[in-house]
Each structure stands twice: as structure tokens, then as C-alpha cells.
Amino acid sequence: MSSVRFFGGVETVTGSKHLLEINGNNFLIDSGLFQGIKFIEKKNDEPIDFDFKQIDAIFITHAHLDHCGYLPYIIRRGYAKKIYTTSETLELMKISLEDSAKLMKNKKESKHYYDQNDVHRALLLVETVKWGHTFSVKGVDVEFRSASHILGSSFVNFKYKNDNITFSGDIGRYGSMMHPLPHELNSTKTLIVESTYGNREHTKTVVEDKLDQLLKDAVKHGRTIIIPAFAIDRTQVILHLLTKLTANSNFQMPIILSGSMGIKVTNLYKRSHESLNLSEDDFEKILKRIRIIEHHNDLENFVAKSIGPQVVVAGSGMMSGGTILAHLEAFGQDPNNIILFTGFQAEGTLGKQLLDGDRIVKIENREVKKFEVLAQIDSLEGMSAHGDRTDLLRWIRSSKVVPERIFIVHGEQDVREDFKVYLEKNLASKVVCPKEEIVYDL
Fold it and tell me: CB burial class (10 A; 0-12, 13-18, 19+) of residue 111?
């Protein structure tokens, strides 16, 4: 007998925490922070109706904070057993969790759920696993396979006697510039699948063409293009495109990578190039082409003295913190400049506010500042690392046997409902949109 409960990642795209009970053991799949508007973030404060000390093992699908950012808090609450993930995810978690703890410490209105000591203790509990290798935990066979979402990302299968349950994590795109195809889905009775883009299909717009035109216009008009970018994966794709498009000696303009996290991740991607579509030489070209601003004094000097044409790539991708705020303040008040978004902006974030046309902004770091953004706002569509509904259906159909039952998670409520209808039209599976903390027998 087995069951599953969801403590996050339902009715929202953040906070994924799924508790699997199988063979009398409690396994937690992912441990994500809630992120976005304040009432969503406050869910991090709500007590979870489960003793973390009763968990027998934790399995992390990938290193995005909405899947692993709650982990050090669980350690603070007393969890001291093993955490399983891939070696690449471990390396990315070292970067993302340390940065998260730093932001909590520095941000004036942020609650400090954990600190660097909690992060260090969490990382010491990690045991790395290889894709395609079956190992046993408490008598249950476990296998990680590549999800091709970001470096090291996986979906995880649990098998015990007649039970066979798979958690998708986040599934990447077919035809990704950075990643090989997702591994085919194993035969499974029950599938817990994400639905971030479950109600839409990615635009077929050629990203390179639009970016190329924006760069040419920047040179012509002497403007600064500010690109808020997620440090993991999105930054590396953008830098690759910028390096490629500005390779011509007649089209030289500064490309600035601002912030230590993006730099660390780029170097890690270079070391891990064998599992990616880009070569070591591709990453060498990127690192030779860009100017790196890592330290605070260098950042202050840069924003005080630099002028366009130039491109600044900085985190965070939704402008919820990081060095992008310094660049927004420095360059965002000039109507000649452009703020170029390259991904999803969650409700309640500064990025979403700007995309929706609200130009009077408040930025919070060590102090609170309020000003009007006069720069032009634009976006590059089609750069998401999430598979759309067609990709997700293709991945589910890659299994030799269609799952008997599918739980849809990690999506806004209306998106989940639309994806449920879509799957029911295309698959002979029972499809469920679960609710938080309800026990579902499998």
C-alpha cells in the first residue's frame, strides 16, 4: 500500500514538496520554497502537518529554489538522514542555496529561514547518484533519469513490488539549444507531472533574429540593454547567443555579466559540457567575450561611469533581488535604454510589475528606494527551459505503457485544469489535480 501527499507545488508553480509513503517509509520528493507575491511567500511560514524527523529520505530533482530552497530549513527543523540527487545538482545547489541564504541575510524585509551553516549541514547529507542507475532505499528501488530542464535535472521513479511511481520534477524542451532530449519515461502506474506551461505552446519566433535587431539598434542609438536573467541555465543560453551574434569584428559591443552566482554557474556548465549540447569551446568563447563584474566595488564603479552601447546580463530573472536592481536604478531611468525580459515573471515580482506597465517601482535591498522607470520594456519569447504542453505529452507518450493515473502539480490552478482537459483528450489515463495535504492512496 502506498500514498502521496502534496505540501506545495499545487495551485502554484513554487514550493514543490511531495511526500510519498511506500512500504511503510516516508520519502520527500523535492523541498522547494514558495516564491512570488507576499501571500504565496507567507506559505513558507505555515506549519506543515508532518514531523520532518519521520522522513526516511529526501530526493531532489534539480537545483532551482522552488524545488530545493526549503531544504536547509528542514535540516534546521531536525532532519538528519540522507538526501539523494545527481552530482551536477549538488554542485548547483551549493551555489543556489548559499546565494539564497545570503539574500535572506541582506534583504531588509526578508525572513531568515536559514543561514549558511544550515546550507552547509544540508549539503553534507547529500549522496550523489547517476542517471539510469537503480539503487535501493529502505527496500524500494529508485532510479533517476535526465529531465533535460537544467544541468543535472532529473525525474525520479520509485518501484516496490507492484507499485511504480514517477515524479517528473521539471521537464525540459524538445529541441533545446542547451540540453539533449529528455530521457524517455519509464513504464509507471502513477505519474506526478509538472504543468508550468501545461496550457500553452511555446512561440515559434526565432529568438536570434529579434535579439540581433535589438543589438544593432543598441549600437545605432548608443543604448544599454539590461537583461534580467536566471543565473542557472538562462544566463548561459543568453551569453551563448550574445557571443554568437557579436562574433563579427565590426559588431563589437561590451557584454557584461554581473553577479557572482551567474559567473559560478557558467564555469560549472563549462566543466560539465559533456552532458550539454554546447562544447567546451563554446563556453571558452563566452568567457573570453564577456566582461565580469563580481565584486561590489567594481559594480559601483561600473554603474557610475559606463554608457552604451552595451548589454548587461544580471540576476535575478524576476528582478526580486541581486545585482539587477543596481543596474535598474542606474540605467532604468533613461528612456533610450531597454529592459529585456527573457522568461516567466511571477505575480507580485518587480519583473511582472514592469511588464504590466507599472513604472513607479520600489526596490528593496539594504535600504528601500522608489523611482520611476523610463526605459523601454521588451521581451524575448520562447526562451523558457520548461517543456510546453506538447513537449509534456510527447514525454508521457515516450513510455511503453501509458500511466494509469496522473497527478498534475507545479502549475497555477487554471493552467492545471486546462492541462487536465488536454491530457484526458489525448490519453486513456485518470487525471487528477490534487489539493494540498490530502492523502491520495495509490
Answer: exposed
18 and 67 in contact (C-beta within 8 Å)? no
* 201, 428, 14, 12: CA torsion to nearest 10: 80
CA pair distance 28, 222, nearest whole angstrom: 52
Q: Of 326, 356, 379, which closes a domain?
A: 379
Query: How confident is the model over 50-103, as pLDDT tens digits?
Result: 889 999 999 999 999 999 999 999 999 999 999 999 999 999 999 999 999 988
Average pLDDT, the chain: 93
Mapped onto helix, strand or coil, the DSSP state of residue 399 is: coil
Among residues 353, 379, 405, the one where a domain terminates is 379
**pLDDT reported for residue 107:** 66
Span between the terminal Cα atoms of the chain, in Å: 7
Question: pLDDT, tens digit, for every residue of 2-46?
Answer: 999 999 999 888 999 999 999 999 999 999 998 877 767 888 888
Specify whether the CB–CB gap between 435 and 441 falls below 8 A: no
For the entire predicted model, the pTM comes to 0.94
Give the whole-number percent of the chain exceeding pLDDT 70.
97
How many whole angstroms separate alpha carbon 327 and alpha carbon 331?
6
In terms of domains, do 52 and 133 share one? yes
Classify residue 253 as left (phi > 0), alpha (psi -120 to 50) or beta: beta
* Collapsed DSSP state (helix, strand, coil) of residue 210: helix
Report d(CA 326, CA 184) in Å as an integer: 43
Instruction: Indicate whether 18 and 67 sit together in one domain.
Output: yes
* pLDDT score at 359: 92
Neighbour-count burial for 17-36, b at 16+ CB within 10 Å, e otherwise: bbbbbbeebbbbbbbbbbbb
For residues 186 and 145, the answer to whether their CB atoms sit within 8 Å is yes
